[in-house]
Amino acid sequence: MAKIIMKTPLVEMDGDEMTRILWRWIKDILIEPYVDLKTEYYDLGLEYREKTKDQVTIDSAEATKKYGVAVKCATITPNAARVEEYDLSEMWKSPNGTIRAILDGTVFREPIVVKGINPFVRSWKKPISIARHAYGDVYKNTEMKTKGAGKAEIVFTDKDGNETRQTIHDFTDDGIIMGMHNTKKSIESFARACFNYALDKKQDLWFATKDTISKIYDHSFKDIFQEIYDAEYDDKFKEANIEYFYTLIDDAVARVVRSEGGFIWACKNYDGDVMSDMIASAFGSLAMMTSVLVSPEGYYEYEAAHGTVQRHYYNHLKGQETSTNSVATIFAWTGALRKRGELDEIPELCTFADKLEKACCDTIEEGVMTKDLAALSELENKKIVNAKEFLLEIQKRLDQMI
Ligand code: NAP
Ligand code: MG
What we know:
Blueprint: E1 4-5, E2 10-14, H1 17-31, E3 35-36, E4 39-43, H2 46-51, H3 55-67, E5 69-72, H4 80-85, H5 95-103, E6 106-111, E7 129-133, E8 142-146, E9 150-157, E10 163-171, E11 175-179, H6 184-201, E12 205-209, H7 217-240, E13 244-248, H8 249-258, E14 264-267, H9 269-283, E15 289-294, E16 300-304, H10 310-317, H11 327-344, H12 347-365, E17 368-369, H13 371-374, E18 383-384, H14 387-401
Parallel strand pairs: 1-3, 2-4, 2-5, 5-16, 7-14, 12-13, 12-14, 17-18
Antiparallel strand pairs: 6-7, 6-15, 8-11, 9-10, 15-16
This protein binds NADP nicotinamide-adenine-dinucleotide phosphate and magnesium ion.
NADP nicotinamide-adenine-dinucleotide phosphate binds next to helix 10.
C-alpha cells in the first residue's frame, strides 16, 4: 500500500526517559509504515536543552507559530535532583511553561473512554473535557510570611506614579499574605480559545468561577467571557446548536458529577489543574487522557497529559521489560496528524488517525492491555503485555482495518 503523502511538516518535539523510548517505537511501528511522515524535528530532551541553553524549546514554539501544528513528547521539568543527574548549568524552566508563554494558550484535556474501563461516576456516558487557563493566578504569585503585628496593603502604582492602595489586613500577630494577578488580554484569549474549541468539537461549554466571593477578580473572568460571547459567538453557537453556560464553581462541581458528560468545562488555572486530575482519575487513568494546547491564533500543540514515567525508564535501562501505556502519546500523534489533514485537506490522513485511535481502543476492549489498565479493566480475560507488544498488537488491528 502506498504511504499517505503529507504537505506541511508537523513540528515534532521529542522528549525524555520512557516516553522518549515510546516515541521512537510509535513512529517505527504505527506511523512511518503508513505515512510518508514529514516533520521538523526539535529535540527537547534535557541533554539537548542543556546543550542549547534551552534555545531549542523557544525555537520549537516559534516553529509551531510558523507551521501551526506540533506534537510533543513528555519532558523532564528539572528540579534540584535533575540538575545533579544531568549535570545542568541551570535549572531550566518547564518546557510546557515556556511553550505556553510563547503561544499564549489554553490546555484542553479529554479522557479516552474504552469499554471495560468504566468511570467511577455512574452517570458519565461521554467524556468531559477540561479547558484550563494556563496563565497567572497562584502560578505567578508573590507570597510572604509576616512577623508580629502590622498592616498588609495592596498597592498599585501607575506609570505616572499615582498610587492606589487598599488594606488587606491589620495583623495583631504572625501571618501570611499572597498577591496574584491576571491580565485582561490573557483572559480574553482564554475565552476565545474555549469558544473556538467548543465550536470545533460541537459541544456545550461550561464555565465557572467563585464570583460571589471574589467580586472583582473572579467576576472579571465571568464578565469578559460573557462580553466576548455576546459580541462574537452567540450566532455561531446557535448555528452549531450548542450552548454557553456560566455557573458558580460549587454548582458546577455538583452538576458535573450528576451529568452524562459530553461537554467542555472551562476552568481558571488552579481549578483546571486540580479538576483535570480529578476528571482523569475518575474516568480511569492519566495515561488515558489527551491534551492539546490551543492558541487564539489557531496554533495546536498535542501532547500526553502524563510525565516521562521515570520509574519505568530506570527499569528499561536495567534491561527489564516495562508495561508502559502508550495510548496518550499515540493520541498526541493522531490528534496532530488529523489536524494537519484537516488544514491541508488530506482526508486520508484524518481517516488514518481515526483508524489508529480505533485500533488502540479495540486492542484494550479485546482484553490486551498494559499493566496500569489491567488493574482497572472489568473485562474477564485480560492479557497483560509489555510496552512493545502492546504497540505490535495495535499494529495488527490497524493492518486489518487498512
Ligand atoms: P509520571 O511520569 O506521569 O508518572 C507517575 C506514575 O504514574 C508512574 O510512575 C506510573 O506509575 C504512572 N504512569 C504515568 N504514565 C504512565 C504510563 N503512560 N503508563 C503506565 N504508567 C504510567 O509523573 P512523575 O513521575 O511525577 O514525573 C516524571 C517526570 O515527568 C518528571 O521529571 C516531571 O517533570 C515530568 N513531567 C512532564 C510532564 C509533561 O511533559 N507534560 C508532565 C508531568 C510530569 P507506576 O510507576 O506505579 O507504574
Ligand atoms: Mg496537577
